[in-house]
Write a structure and sequence with these properties.
The protein is mainly alpha-helical and 364 residues long. The chain has eleven helices and eight strands. The longest helix is centred in the middle third of the chain and has 42 residues. It is found in: Membrane.
């Protein structure tokens, strides 16, 4: 019955007199029946565990139940794969794990998926072994016996309904629904915010670097600035407003749970971000500098006065600069996913508002 994931309970009786009533009648009982209580998985657990596996997150079951029962339940949920007799992953008794040397525990800890008959002290041994191997460990629990593990974990999650006050107090996150699928949502939202923060930072760096290079080069060459203070403030105002709007309003994308996790200590600005930054800044600076130095011939302004020609040219440069940022934020850039260096950064699904700006409307 344990192999079927059933918790066993025996019903028995014994005849005795009132005078000879024993305190705990544990012997000479007549067995009536053995009842198997099924502890079934909640709906959606198997899909949630598969999502974690796709995202590079390993799920382990550490329980005080018998190992056979724990293995059967883990098979039903998708935590353990293979057969009960020959599991594809490691299932072990907590006492066996605790009897190993520290080096052996660290060696086998990465392979453990199910650990049965585990006490709070043995939970800590597994957690510490995983942390020493460089893993980021998240622990869940609801009882007082789970409190030590929650305190030592990198991320602790407590059950909001069944969790005790002590467990909630020492946890980083409280799961209100007591459902494992909520943990998957936490991972997805965390990755979404991290990715959006990277994208927004790259977008802001691209805008500022492009504007700085263009203004410095033109100022050194022509002793004038194509983008004045009011124009730069206008761009920064809209960048900040719509960037924050996108970060706060967009739901996370499903493909985030198909990416590997970011390793601990990884730089926030990645090599891919630097490559995209260089490509986008190079394109914007090259295009706008070419327009600045050859704008009179391109826009056919040879017959206009120098002051009038500069106003028209700088107006076009400003609107082209804004349009470059529209391209960076446009959802149409999603089609470029197979070319990551030239993939425009999508901050939400809201296109950047481009309003034609004229320095002097009389000249256009």
């Amino acid at each position: 019955m344990s192999k079927e994931g059933l918790r066993c309970a025996a019903l028995a009786y014994r005849t005795f007199t009132d005078e000879a009533f024993p305190d705990i009648p544990e012997s000479n009982l007549v067995l009536l029946a053995i009842i198997g209580i099924k502890d079934s998985c909640r709906p959606g657990i198997s899909q949630a565990i598969q999502q974690c596996r796709n995202a590079g997150v390993k799920v382990c079951m550490v329980t005080g139940d018998d190992l056979l029962t724990a293995k059967a339940i883990a098979m039903q949920c998708g935590i353990l794969r293979g057969t009960l007799d020959e599991p594809a992953n490691t299932a072990i008794l907590a006492s066996e794990f605790a009897s190993m040397s520290e080096a052996d525990r660290e060696e086998i800890a990465e392979n453990i998926v199910v650990m049965g008959r585990s006490s709070p002290d043995e939970n800590l041994l597994l957690l510490e072994a995983l942390r020493k191997k460089g893993h980021v460990v998240a622990a869940t629990g609801k009882g007082i016996r789970d409190a030590p593990s929650l305190r030592q974990a990198n991320i602790s999650l407590a059950m909001g309904i069944g969790g005790t006050a002590i467990v909630k107090e020492c946890s980083d996150i409280i799961i209100l629904e007591d459902n494992f699928t909520s943990i998957v949502k936490v991972i997805q939202w965390g990755r979404f915010l991290y990715t959006n923060a990277q994208r927004f930072l790259q977008f802001r760096l691209t805008v500022n670097a492009s504007a700085l290079i263009i203004c410095v080069v033109v100022a050194v060459h022509s002793h004038e600035i194509p983008l004045n203070v009011a124009e730069l403030l206008w761009i920064n105002l809209l960048n900040d407003t719509f960037g924050a709007w996108a970060l706060a309003s967009e739901p996370p994308m499903d493909n985030l749970m198909r990416r590997p996790p970011v390793r601990k200590g990884a730089p926030f600005i990645t090599k891919l971000m630097r490559a995209k930054f260089v490509a986008q800044v190079s394109f914007q600076v090259s295009a706008l500098l070419y327009l600045n130095f050859h704008g009179e011939s391109i826009l056919k302004l040879e017959n206009k006065s120098l002051d009038q020609a500069n106003k028209v040219k700088n107006t076009v440069i400003f609107n082209c600069f804004v349009f470059c940022q529209v391209i960076d934020l446009s959802p149409l850039c999603l089609v470029s996913q197979h070319h990551p260096v030239f993939d425009c950064q999508v901050i939400g699904r809201f296109p950047f508002p481009a309003f034609p700006y004229l320095r002097n409307e009389d000249h256009i």
